[in-house]
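Let us practice reading a record.
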Amino acid sequence: MLVVGVVGIVVLAVAATLGPRVGVAAPLLLVVVGVGASFLPLFAGVEIEPEWILEGVLPPLLYSSAVSMPAMNFRREFGAISGLSVVLVVAGSLVLGWFFSLVVPGLGFAWGVALGAIVSPTDAVATSIIRRTSTSRRVVAMLEGESLLNDATALVILRTAIVATAAAFSFWGAVGSFAYSVAVAVVLGAAVGRLALLVRRRIADPTVTTVISFAVPFLASVPAEILGASGLVAAVVAGLLTGIRAPRDLSSRNRLADSQNWRTVEFVLEGAVFLTMGLQIRGIVESVERDHAGVGTAVLVAVAALVLTVLVRAAYVAPLLRGLAIRARQHRSLQPRLEDMQERMRTAEGQEEFAARSRRRVSQARLDRFAVRITRGLATIRYFLREPLGWREGTVVVWAGMRGAVTVAAAQTLPETTPQRSVLVLVAFTVATLSLLVQGSTVGPLVRRLAPPVDPAARERAEAERTELLDLLRRTSTAIPEPERPDAEPAVERVRASVEHRLVVLAAQRTALLDARDDGAFDADVLEDALADLDASEIAIELRGRGTG
């Protein structure tokens, strides 16, 4: 087993190096390598427990993705994300359940829905392929948000369908189970994420804080699963809260260590997921042959199911985009009114007018909160108008919804009493593999072909935004004048005082950027770059101080 692990790590590194050179995404290379390796004697005895994927690999991967996802973009796209991760998964499970019950003899609708739930959700790891393309940031936010949450919906449907095969199905019981699963997970994930930050902010050693961060997704997911809730949602919530609060609570060095180490963890886990997908093919095929079921028939069913998933997704995304376009027009009509309110709230007369219209006493804190709501509302409107979603983006949303290792792992959790279980597992594996190979290998060229012509106005807006951000940093810096020092003060003390002043300025600039982030005033990528520059400056100052201390 040790040899297998060492060989696997080497293969991950080789695939990551060769992939960009041959124009093929590394995850796709790993799947192909895994399929080929599954027929070698060295890997003949490799068996992957599905719980390793669902409970050991997914929580840290989802947590890490949630930490790095811009929280403001997630909030803005939450309506679309919740629809894709709940409504679409439910609809896909039912449609595919009906299809599977027709084409697989003796399966039945309940078991068909169970397999439909396995096949319906997109895979968070597979969706990582779309991050490497130049597609719209709104599309990336929607796809990442969907893949963070839809596994929970699918697993609840899977459990409900399995129960329905042995007992009477209760619609409201299923709804209650889903609501309980999500609610408990949200509370647990938020509590664990906040508690972990409170502990980590008191620890100066970056190595220790990073080790604690490795435990956070499991501290959130394991108790949630014990309580019958969704461990994956708990891990995602802990990650989202960490991503929001960490720049305020943790030092630059701690966050840099987190980022570097989690990138390594992501690289190894993601690669292992794709590699193990391919390694399982031999055992799955042998199981089907042992049960005297038709491998060719299962593959044809899988091809038809993959086509059906794309059609169902397209049927859902088309009206979703129309709804988003209608909402964007409504936002456009509200923009002048909100801009007028924002201008008035900046004056004492405007605040007095608002207080006079209110039926109860209005405190200054409430006036400030109202002004912040207006600012954030305007920023959201400008975001939607600046990044419209048309047919190009809709096509990418449909085609980039790939299945992956979660589908294979979930299929292997089917009870041994499942009718034609080996065939269902092979169908799920084939759907996931074909999705990765077909959709994954073509989504990059598709994005490049559908890319809209370069808009000079967009480039000007981006440049103006960077200029505005630099002005914010400059204003924040000048608002903290350097204290005057006596001429006779020793040079060492002058240097120390200058360093302390520079650190205070950097802290104030970071606070200003984070406040702007919470208000949605700037593009998430521009803000991330600016925050990274501040972190680099602070770390450099600390290192120079250590070297001269």
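A brief commentary: Residues 325-369 form one domain.
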